[in-house]
Amino acid sequence: MAGRGHRFLRYADDLIILCKSKRSAYRTLEKILPYIEGKLFLKVNRQKTTIDYIGKIKFLGFTFYRYNRETRVRTHPKTIEKMKNKIRELTAKSNGWSNEYRAIKLRQYIIGWINYFKLANMKRLLKEIDEWMRRRIRMVYWKQWKKVKTRYQMLKHFGIDGDKAWEFANTRKGYWRTSNSPILSRSLNNQTINSLGYIFFFDYYQQVCVN
Predict the structure, then answer these.
(1) pTM for this structure?
(2) In whole angstroms, what is the distance from residue 86 CA to residue 80 CA?
(3) Would you say residue 132 has pLDDT above 90?
(4) CB crowding 20-56: b at 16 or more within 10 Å, else e
(5) In whole angstroms, what is the distance from residue 202 CA to residue 36 CA?
(6) Which of 48, 88, 139, 193 could form a disulfide with 179 if both were Cys (CB 3.0 to 4.6 A apart)?
(7) What value, to the nearest 5°, has the Cα angle with vertex 98 and ends 96 and 100?
């Protein structure tokens, strides 16, 4: 491939061959498959083998895009959806975890995820993910404060005055809607959530970002 002037990326058995045209890509694929399977005796997964524009492929969870005549890296949409599903799992009230253990598990996942994907350009995306994640954390706490009395006491503990705390403790709104309310955003604000042991994607990304 190098002799033919192809640029390529390889990580273990994952491989991308970069071609200047679709015609060239088909021609290259026809020539490389017999070599890989006939000479190297390796099996090619035909279902995962595709020819497409570089911006549409998924490679190790990444994809690529062009900006100001430069090729840049970002996380693939399927990678983001998988990450969000993991956050849903870690912030589910039904898992029976303590808040302290949940914060530890989230911390472990976030550190591992960011260290793997830190090459990607995703500052804006991570800010949006963090806002959504904070809302889910607020929802977890609100679910834990099941009784009106408990909600009233906890809202007062986190700085809401008595009348407002009592009014809000008696709300009939659903958990998800309540998690985005001004009062819960004030009582469990970003600083308070951080003090409870949680870390967030964007904050850690800024510490290790290589962009």
Answers:
(1) 0.83
(2) 10
(3) yes
(4) eeeeebeebeeebeeeeeeeeeeeeeeeeeeeeeeee
(5) 41
(6) 139
(7) 150
